Fold this sequence. Notes:
By secondary structure, this protein is of the alpha/beta class.
Amino acid sequence: MTATQHRTTEAPAAGGQAIGATSLARPIAVALPKGRILEEAAALLARAGYDISAVLGDSRRLVHDCGALRVLVLRSSDIATYVAHGAADIGVAGSDVLDEEGRDLYEPIDLGIGRCRMIVAEPVGARIDESSQMHLRIATKYPRTTRAYLTRRQIPAEIIKLSGAIELGPLTGLCDRIVDITQTGETLRQNGLVEIDKVADVSSRLVVNRSRLKLDGKRLGKLISDLESALVV
């Protein structure tokens, strides 16, 4: 069973609790990641009837009021944290981050944007014999996911956690392999690395704070429904 399968995807019951006046008055707080996925999310929200085009025109502001939505523009790695702690009602987060963090968030939709894959790579021409007794070291931003992969494959290895420039690890002798995400593989090729295995397919998911869904189920439910409809347009 994958880490994604461990997360509950059944919505909590929203009935029986009144929505307060304050909840109705304020915009729905939506956490979106910077960069390419922000543009894809804006296009999807537009098809769903929510115009957040103002967000795309000002890269310096981090909070944008867009009618019924208040958009928070964050680092992709922070989206799940903001939603889990209630600073955002809803967000768009990569399945790579969700699998790694394992937070208790409701994930009603795979949005199908930001598609890429998590892979294992090593230097070209330096293929490693996994059956040998060598001390294998793997650098990654995703130690939890990497450990689960190694356990499935029954590969003993030391995991080294890095925050950036993962491709530099094998080039400097820090590690033998890396586990990272890639879309085209071009960065790997430019750094003399070759993909040897796929850990998981990655895409962006809609994530919702469970408590907010109980308190503001009507509005959040409509937003979820609108986005589901937009996916089939």
